[in-house]
Automatic annotation (TrEMBL):
Residue positions binding NADP(+): G164, R165, S166
Coiled coil region boundaries: none
Source species of the chain: Candidatus Caccousia stercoris
InterPro entries: Aminoacid_DH-like_N_sf, NAD(P)-bd_dom_sf, THF_DH/CycHdrlase, THF_DH/CycHdrlase_cat_dom, THF_DH/CycHdrlase_CS, THF_DH/CycHdrlase_NAD-bd_dom
The name this protein goes by in its record: Bifunctional protein FolD
Function: Catalyzes the oxidation of 5,10-methylenetetrahydrofolate to 5,10-methenyltetrahydrofolate and then the hydrolysis of 5,10-methenyltetrahydrofolate to 10-formyltetrahydrofolate.
Gene encoding the protein: folD
Signal peptide annotation: none
GO process terms (BP): L-histidine biosynthetic process; methionine biosynthetic process; purine nucleotide biosynthetic process; tetrahydrofolate interconversion
Subunit composition and interactions: Homodimer.
Domain Tetrahydrofolate dehydrogenase/cyclohydrolase NAD(P)-binding: 138-280
Length: 285
């Protein structure tokens, strides 16, 4: 039986640290602030934005929400980002994806002041992560590293396999494992002998977006299995990329869905907002 990595508990402890730091910063006259921009009426995006606002309130972070109609033009959105770049009480800007069709997400990200880019999606921050000289780490991969560390698991020297190569999860995930001295393989839809490669992994991270994709025959006994997926099963129920019921007895450690990686993403966003506030104030960590 695998040890369950409890993302709710780990994220609660990160949030408590953030809340404590926010209090200390406020006492010194610095109140971290986050602006969340949502365009259109995608229900999942609405839920994410509500959760982020709630998490800010709980940790004492100041937040502003900008809910724009789906018919918003590219120029209107860019102009909002520019005005948030100038706002001194806003230290982090998050534009909730996906944007409605017709809006250029990359151009919007590039408009965000890199020091306010708490998602770490701006090309300047992506480059910083690549060379290992970064201010922020992208929230989901950073959350995964935090979960692994919470168990005292050493990454150095381990065989790490990441399934998925998206810009927001797979690629930065691989880079963070590499920074932690893992020996990393990235797999994707064109990978040959996927199951065989996965079976070599001491640490297996699934970021595929396909329900129950990682089956028991893809997992080495005792492996650390991290499930980033947020999928729906045949009954419409939230599930991960890992076939939990069959993989769990074989793995050494495993994250559940829900309650694994998901809660970490918001916790790391809060931490990045605090980092951004200190960065803009010229304060060192
Ligand atoms: P994505 O952009 O769709 O990327 C999926 C990746 O999986 C792609 O690189 C794709 O390969 C690869 N893939 C698809 N089918 C495959 C197959 N049969 N064999 C091997 N690789 C395959 O998705 P994403 O944005 O990275 O998200 C991945 C999952 O994580 C989703 O379930 C998403 O909801 C979840 N997620 C969770 C959080 C969280 O907070 N927990 C945050 C972000 C995302 P190609 O590149 O070759 O197409």
């Amino acid at each position: 039986m695998a040890k369950l990595i409890d993302g709710k508990a780990v994220s609660a402890s990160v949030r408590a640290q953030v809340a404590q730091e926010v209090q200390e910063l406020k006492a010194k006259g610095l109140h971290p602030g986050l602006a969340v921009v949502i365009v259109g009426d995608d229900p999942a995006s609405r839920t994410y934005v509500n959760n982020k606002k709630k998490a800010c309130a709980e940790t004492g972070i100041y937040s502003e929400e900008y809910a724009l109609p789906a018919a918003t033009t590219q120029e209107e959105l860019l102009s909002l980002v520019r005005s948030l770049n100038q706002k001194p009480e806003i230290h982090g800007i998050l534009v909730q994806s996906p944007l409605p069709e017709g809006l250029d997400e990359e151009a919007v990200i590039e408009e965000i002041n890199p020091q306010k880019d708490v998602d770490a999606f701006h090309p300047q921050n992506v480059g910083r992560i690549m060379i290992g000289n970064f201010h922020f780490l992208p929230c989901t991969p950073a959350g995964v590293i935090e979960l692994i560390r919470s168990q005292g698991i050493e990454i150095a020297g381990k065989r790490c396999v990441v399934i998925g190569r998206s810009n927001i999860v797979g690629k930065p995930m691989a880079m963070l494992l590499l920074h932690n001295h893992g020996t990393v393989t990235i797999c994707h839809s064109k990978t040959r002998d996927l199951a065989e490669i996965c079976r070599e992994a001491d640490i297996l991270v699934a970021a595929v977006g396909r329900p129950k994709f990682v089956t028991e025959n893809m997992v080495k006994p005792g492996a650390v299995v991290i499930d980033v997926g947020m999928d729906r099963d045949e009954n419409g129920k939230l599930c991960g990329d890992v076939d939990f019921v069959h993989v769990e007895p074989k793995a050494g450690y495993i994250t559940p869905v829900p309650g694994g990686v998901g809660p970490m993403t918001i916790a790391m966003l809060l931490r990045n907002t605090v980092t951004a506030a200190k960065l803009q104030a010229g304060w060192k960590d």
